[in-house]
Amino acid sequence: MFLTNHDIVELTAWRQKLHAMPEISGEEVATAAEVIAFLAETAPDKVLSGLGNTGVAAVFDGAEPGPTVLFRCELDALPIEEISDIPHRSRLSGKGHMCGHDGHTATIAALARGFAKDRPKRGRVVLLFQPAEETGAGAAAVIADPRFAEITPDYAFSLHNLPGLPLGHVWLKEGIANCASRGLKITLTGKTAHASMPETGTSPMRAIAGLMPALTDLSGGTVAGGDLVLATVGHVRLGEPAFGIAPGYAELWVTLRTTTNDQMQALVDAAEQLARQAADAGGLSLETSYHEIFSHCDNHPDAVEKLRAALDAEGVAHEAGEALRASEDFGRFGAVSRSAMFYLGAGEKHPALHNPDYDFPDDLIPIGARILMRTARDLLG
Fold first, then answer.
1. Strands 180-189 and 55-61, how do they pair?
2. Per residue in 268-283, pLDDT tens?
3. What residue numbers does the annotated binding site cover?
4. Which of 10, 65, 299, 358 would staple 340 via disulfide (CB 3.0–4.6 Å)?
5. CATH code at position 283
6. Which residues are documented as binding site for Mn(2+)?
7. At which of 294, 315, 330 does a domain end?
């Protein structure tokens, strides 16, 4: 094992420090500074900061030519109030590391300790600490950054913890690992009126009330059984919180989700048609916009083979598992490299991701680091 007990103790303490100082997508300034300070003692050959806004990349060069292998984690937390009595609970109201990105960051930082002691023999390793995964904007911003050309990988790997799966057990499959998704915001505008004379206005009430079940009815299928089509209403706003006003404005937020990117357009077209019909029937103006756009995550067979070999060599139990309905912006790295993500069990009874009582299991730090280091050594020596 390349990590000493002292390393594990320090990495655990550092992870808990990150947990207490969560920053949401696009605001990861202090977290990035923590990463840069941690990396300083490992003396990377190059550090890129401010990558894709607040991202950090550390490069460890080998002595001989070879492939570039990237290992990616995420810096951002969620706008969720933590409900916990743990000593390292969030110090920031309304923000919390409820997805385990603090643990993923500590796991990738563990690799820096390993490569500080023993550089790869050939090629180079890139440790990417990516911003804004939760909004789907981070990977795209990193790849669009002109400096990404300096570190474009041949292989890219990532992990994500998964509650419900036995602690330390791995799910890894070829092909689709995560679904595509995007947020659709529908705005309907009519005319506000006095509540005593609603007939003098144009209310979007009936339109918005009918759209919610109509959009939900577009859903069908499961990942396990084939193609997924899912429309989930997440937020609705109708008028103002006042008794004296008949509303003239409404918003509906719905998440559209499909197994693949190609299937998304049909769902988008169907949702927009329903919105247009509702607006026309109610005499309302319509605006639509899209947010938090995630591509599906497609695990490359060659990258999966490399991870499976590492799992077998390290004696880690693994199976193919299922594609997850949840989205992951790591999928964008598949367009520039042979990429694969695996899921590392956080425990069968562990609180679910995005729950307010979730906390990353620190026992996963050395397990995840061991798997990824073996993958790097198999590729680069």
1. unpaired
2. 999 999 999 999 999 9
3. 99, 101, 134, 160, 354
4. 299
5. 3.30.70.360
6. 99, 101, 134, 160, 354
7. 294
